[in-house]
Amino acid sequence: MAASKGGLLQGTLDLLILRALSLGPNHGLGIARRVAQITQGTFDVKPGSLFPALHRLEEQGWLAAEWGESENRRKAKYYRLTATGQKHLDHETESWKRIASAIASAIAATS
Amino acid sequence: MSVPSRVSSLLRNLLRARRVEQDLDDEVRSYADMLTDEKRAGGLGEEEARRAALVEIQGLEQVKEQVRETRAGTVLEQIWRDITYGVRVLLKHRGFTAAAVATLALGIGANTAIFSIVDTIVFRPLPYANPERLVKIWGTTSSTQRADVSWPDFDDIQRQSRSFERVAADDGMGFDVEYKGARKSVSGAMVTTEWLTTLGVRPLIGSAFRPEESRHGQDEVVILTHSYWRRGFASDSNVLGQVLLVDGRPHTIVGVLPPNVLRYGSDFLKPLVLSDYPTERGHRDLDVFARFRPDVTLAEAQAELDTIAARLERDYPETNKGRRLVAEPLGKSYASLDRAAIYGLELMLGAVGVVLLIACVNVVSLVMARGVTRARECVVRTALGASRGRLVRQMLVENVLLFLAGGALGILAARWSADSLIALAVASGYIPERIFVAIDGRVFAFGLIVSALAGLLFGLAPALEASRVDVNVGLRDSGPTVPGSRRRTRVRRVLIASELALSVVLLVGFGLLIRSFVRVQANATSLAVDTVLETSAEGGRSFETAVNFWRRAMESVRTIPGVTTAAVTSRPPVHGARQKRIAIAGRASLPADAEVGDILVSANYFRTLGITLVAGRFFTEADNGAAPAVAIVSETLARRYFSSESPIGRRLRVDEEDPMMCCTAASPVTGVWREIVGVVRDIRQSSLEEQPAATLYRPYSQIVEHDMYLMVRMGSANDAARIAKDVSARLALVAPGQEWANVLPLRQVIDGSETIRRRRFVLTLLGFFAAVAVALAAVGLYGLMAYFVAERRREIGIRIALGASQDAVLKHVLNEALRLAAVSLVLGGLSAQLLTKSIAVMLFGVSSTDVLTYASVWTLLAGVVLLASYFPARRAARVDPIVALREP
User: Fold this and answer.
1) What is the phi/psi pair of residue B682, to 5°?
2) What does the pLDDT read at residue B14?
3) DSSP B721-756
4) What residues of B are in contact with residue A58 (Cβ under 8 Å)?
5) Are the beta carbons of B5 and A59 separated by less than 8 Å?
6) Which residues in chain A are contacts of B27 at CB distance < 8 A?
7) Are A47 and B28 a contacting pair at CB < 8 A?
8) Quick count: other Cβ atoms within 10 Å of Cβ B249?
9) Of B374, B478, B556, B882, which has the fewest beta carbons less than 10 angstroms from its beta carbon?
10) Tens digit of pLDDT for each residue in B853-876?
């Protein structure tokens, strides 16, 4: 499933990125791979959606970025979660859980 | 969302754009490198791994573009980039840019220049404080709507009224002013000391009059109007304290009024001194105005004036019987701005609006024609990841830039041309000479707003059109036709057709006004306008002096070679006439509006001007003070008051003002019955546009006006200049020191009359605008047809190869143009039908559906259409089929 279109999915992508980075700083490709990993391969984030999202989150102050060196000794830009980013993640996780359980019960009720 | 971090990102993005851009590039590349590493680790070779990585990324540039779109400040940054890019593109296509900018400059410049005048005359209020509380107070009688007020009446209004905060009065007259050795007659006004405070105006420099300056001996101070200060004193700010000789007495300049605070044609104000002013209740020469209190309405103020007038009528029946006082908003009356002039200016604004519309349409058509070449650029940019919105914005920015450049140039042009335009408007009587038209920020703002709005409005459509691209078709196709070009051509055809239709509207308006102008001028042809000269002087204030003066003047010019007769009159044609009430013997009293024009003439006046006798006789030299009182009436007077009966031998009486201010008579004239001895043909006495009015002529040898006109008839018009010079020379000898007005041909006087000058002004500008409109439409049509032919070279080649003659091809192209023209001419005609209703007031002797006008306009435009399409058509006819068919 491609995480590119729609408001709900954009919000989802943001949440996934924040979640992936809460495990520790990482670079673009690393984040994509980690998202795939924690969603059991459901989300395959393409660079066309990943990079705009990273830059947007950085501008909102939830991520900070600095240049570092990758495991293969390549120059890479590393993103990490800021304190406000962590707070935002907690808040979003909370509301996501509420929505998810609400929708789950809604679906259970109609079926 | 954190605001500070957004702001700092915005600043970083904007200020360090290059660095940010480099950073993004590095980041995306590092991603690609790492992905390649990953693929290679999965067992692919170097090359293969790289290709697989790039395929998965789906384009480095596209990814970067998508990041840019989300960045803070992107919009600003992109617009800035669009602007610099737009400027580069426009500079590169100099021919296109120059054509478009020049067209727009013409449209916007004309609008800005006309707006500067309309703004001053129509929109801007005069610089009075709370002008809505200012009223002019007129004295009225059953026969006159607007008469002046006498000093005692003014004084009573001032004392008795409670509705008014302040009441002020003024009286204008001519003064002899000497400044730095130069003497001139200048009109000034004597004003009460509250004059400026009533208007709520403070002098621009200096001070208002002080109360004690209305006393005799202390009144030797003047305040200059802004216009006089500009003309006569070169706007010198050190003018305060300087001394002018006014009628020989030294007066100190104590102030200068702000622009457009005027008192009719007066150039300066001085205090009105009561002890030097006529204070009879019957002497009515004051203009009175007042400011009513904020808690009072106009109706309440009027009710109070009614009470005061009734009281005055009761207390002073001999002078105030039947007199009322009427308050009406002061408005712009002191600035002499009238409805007719305003109407013509609004018409001009409409006409320049149409010109601007045509100019914009023309530029849109040009832009769309260029869209064909821009289409490939759009295809490539889309392929590189630009969104449609991005393309539209860039094109729109480019178009708005074009309009702004045109606007800037137009505003400059307006700035340069406004002075001559204003001079033309002043010379045509369209705006009073003393009105100051400011070309200021307000006017510039108008020009800029018009250009920006036009740019957004007219730039959007071609931008949307140009961005409508299909990447797959666009990149694959290499032929001369570009996707959407057919559609675009269709839109351009509609645009050009509407230009032609708008030109029809302007031309029809122009044509109708030309026809009216000719009809108006034709009204003067019954008079000997080309062989009569006119001049005037003050003959004298006593009857004997005046009559002797005029007799000598007539005799002295009669002997000039080439002169056949000479005559005097109190008012020549188009100068109007004093209105007098009359009574007819043996007839119950006439209705209150029974007023006729009253003109005093010498015996040979009618022969001199070529006015023919209908019945009875002309005056003779024997109709003097000793002879019975006589009169001659015009046909209209005869018809109105005597219907089918003959007026000859009937008697009438003229109500005279008492004492007479204008005239002196051989013997008392009040209550005198005059016998009608003749009936003459009507002439247009007040203006060429008005229906002939009832006119009464009386012999100057029985009653004479202080100021009269001398009319000199020549044998032919050929020698007019020499005879005019001789007339001046002879008259100078009649009474040395006497001032004579310039000796002018009657034709020139009539041409100089307000009606003609105003019409000429409207025609000059409207003609210019119509010509511009037609030229723009012709250029637009030429461009369209040239494109039409270029697009069909191959088709035309095939036709020729299949045996079509050159003539047939020519006809084919011309037919195409004529089909387009036919539609627009019909549509234009219909719109003109609707729109010319609005100029009905200005039409004279011609209906707004005048067939001749429509036929001429259509013929003219059909000719223009043929001319504009002939050259492209000829090019089509000369297409070489072999060359055309080999082209890709």
Assistant:
1) -70, 145
2) 67
3) HHHHHHHHHHHHHHSTT------EEHHHHHHTSHHH
4) 9
5) yes
6) 28, 51, 77
7) yes
8) 9
9) B478
10) 999 999 999 999 999 999 999 988
Look at B70 and A75 and tell me if their CB atoms are within 8 Å. Answer: no
Q: Residue B746: how many CA atoms within 13 Å on its side-chain side?
A: 26
Distances B425 to B58, B90, B412, B712, B770 between C-alpha atoms, Å: 67, 38, 20, 32, 19
Structural contact between residues B362 and B103, judged by C-beta atoms closer than 8 angstroms: yes
Per-residue pLDDT at B407 exceeds 80: yes
Distance between CA atoms of residues A90 and B564, nearest Å:
113
Q: Which CB contacts under 8 angstroms, 24+ apart, belong to B878-884?
A: B878/B806, B879/B793, B879/B796, B879/B797, B879/B800, B879/B809, B880/B797, B881/B797, B881/B798, B881/B800, B881/B801, B882/B797, B883/B797, B884/B793, B884/B794, B884/B796, B884/B797
The answer to whether A48 contacts B62, with C-beta atoms less than 8 Å apart, is yes
Q: Which chain B residues contact residue A56 at CB under 8 A?
A: 70
Q: Average pLDDT, stretch B410-417? A: 91
Phi, psi of B88 (to 5 degrees): -60, -45
Could you tell me the pLDDT band of residue A9, with boundaries at 50, 70 and 90? low
**Which one of A37, A54, A59 makes the best mutation probe of the B interface by having the most chain B beta carbons within 10 Å?**
A59
DSSP string, B699-721: ETTTEEESEEEEEEEES-GGGHH
Give the strand pairing for B243-246 and B149-150. unpaired
Chain B positions touching A59 (Cβ under 8 A) are: 5-6, 9, 71-72
Query: So what's the ipTM on this one?
Result: 0.86
SS (H, E, C) B218-263: CCCEEEECHHHHHHHHCCCHHHCCCEEEECCEEEEEEEECCCCCCC
Give the pLDDT confidence of B491-511 residue by residue, as tens digits. 888 989 999 999 999 999 999
Closest residue in chain A to residue B8, using alpha carbons only: A59
Q: What is the structure's pLDDT at A69?
A: 86
Mean pLDDT, rounded, for B57-86: 81
User: In chain A, which residues have their Cβ closer than 8 Å to the Cβ of B64?
Assistant: 51
pTM of the model: 0.75
pLDDT tens sequence across B148-198: 999 999 999 999 999 999 999 999 988 989 998 888 889 999 999 999 999
